[in-house]
Amino acid sequence: MSVPDRRAQLFRMDEARRQTQRQLDMIDRQIIRRMTAVIPQLRPHSAGSGRGRGPGPAMFLERYRANLAAITQERQHEIDALSRKLARQDAAIEVLRARLPPDLRRA
User: Fold this and answer.
1) What span, in angstroms and rounded, lies between the C-alpha atoms of 102 and 98?
2) DSSP annotation of 105
């Protein structure tokens, strides 16, 4: 394969990697958006524990983490698949870059 062909292939592979990363970022933003919608429900609605105070920050964090884990678990198979794909793409890009002359590796 000629150097221009390798550079073109590297460009395509980099673009595919960026697309995969965008998909992972989109899933992350969706999880954040869902957690933002859930936060008001995690706060105490009444003065249920001790002299008009809510259950406190430790209880809030516990509920927050439990909800975050549940929401993330729903998308975990997608996250795992995209993470594996990203790792394969990174490895393939490094192999192709190694085949380019040193002055053209970071274009």
Assistant:
1) 8
2) S
Phi-psi category of residue 50: left, alpha or beta, with phi > 0 → left and psi -120 to 50 → alpha: left
The model carries a pTM of 0.78
Q: Which is nearest to 61 in space by CA: 75, 42, 33?
A: 42
Distances (CA, A) of 89 to 28, 44, 52, 93, 96: 20, 46, 55, 6, 11
Cα–Cα dist 56/88, whole Å: 45
Of 1, 18, 12, give the one whose Cα is nearest residue 99: 1
Q: Which residue has the tokens 């460009």?
A: 11
Write the CB contacts of 60 (distance below 8 Å, at least 6 apart in sequence). 42, 43, 54
Cβ partners under 8 Å of residue 15, min gap 6: none
Encode pLDDT of 47-86 as tens digits.
555 555 666 888 889 999 999 999 999 999 999 999 999 9
